[in-house]
Design goal:
By secondary structure, the chain is mostly beta strands. It contains two helices and 14 strands. The strands form six sheets. A three-stranded antiparallel beta sheet has the order 3-5-4, with no helix packed on it. A three-stranded antiparallel beta sheet has the order 8-9-10, with no helix packed on it. A two-stranded antiparallel ribbon has the order 1-2. The radius of gyration is 33 Å and the shape is elongated. The protein starts with a helix and ends in a 15-residue tail after the last strand.
């Protein structure tokens, strides 16, 4: 009876099929006539506008009033995640990119990085480490630059700053090396002329040291 009311024979479809958003495939409508974009998780649906069955979605009428459409949901009411237009089932592990791995859980997802975020400090054999993207590899790698080693000291001192923006990065200052009196604190930062990671120091004083007792009592 529903088919007789909504479906017309023969089918009349547009010459050019619709352009679907990412993650929404072309499927036949509920009448089996024309190609339409499948509805995704949480989108409205009805007899004609069907849900994406390849993602395990069905048109859920449980919360709809009489005479209205439903909402695309999982057939077993299982929670899922939608990331970049693609639906993942509860408990599924996926990688939106080669740099992160995610886990769909209870309608949300948690991600962990797959690339190491280690910091390489300058060393005598590698005074100017720099992290760069390597063609054909997902994670950036550290390389050593030695171009500034052969410059005269005066040339390095007057060289102009970088012409490209340098996003500031640095660790917090460490605790003072001395519990009282003058000491020094250290940190790793790229806030310098060449935008390179280096260990920086500054003087600090946690508190003044107490006065030492006199070696001999004063003679009255």
């Amino acid at each position: 009876q529903v088919c007789a009311q909504l479906c017309r024979r023969p089918c009349y479809c547009p010459w050019v099929p619709p352009r679907c958003p990412r993650g929404s495939p072309l499927v036949l409508d509920g009448c089996g006539c024309c190609k339409i974009c499948a509805r995704r998780l949480g989108e409205p649906c009805d007899f004609l506008h069907v849900c994406d069955q390849s993602q395990g979605l069905v048109c859920d009428y449980s919360s709809a009033s009489a005479g209205t459409g439903g909402i695309c949901n999982f057939e077993d009411d299982e929670e899922g995640c939608e990331v970049n237009g693609r639906v993942y089932r509860d408990g599924e592990v996926f990688q939106p990119s080669c740099k992160i791995q995610c886990h769909c859980l209870d309608g949300g997802f948690n991600c962990i990085p797959l690339c190491q975020e280690n910091v390489r400090l300058p060393t005598p054999d590698c005074p100017y480490p720099r992290r760069v993207e390597i063609p054909g590899k997902c994670c950036p790698e550290w390389i050593c630059e030695a171009q500034d080693q052969h410059l005269p000291r005066d040339a390095r001192a007057v060289s102009p700053p970088l012409r490209y923006p340098c996003p500031e990065w640095g660790t917090e200052w460490s605790a003072c090396s001395a519990t009282c009196g003058l000491g020094f604190a250290t940190r790793v930062s790229n806030q310098n002329r060449y935008c390179r990671l280096e260990t920086q120091r500054r003087l600090c004083m946690a508190r003044p040291c107490p006065a030492l007792p006199a070696a001999f009592p004063a003679v009255s």
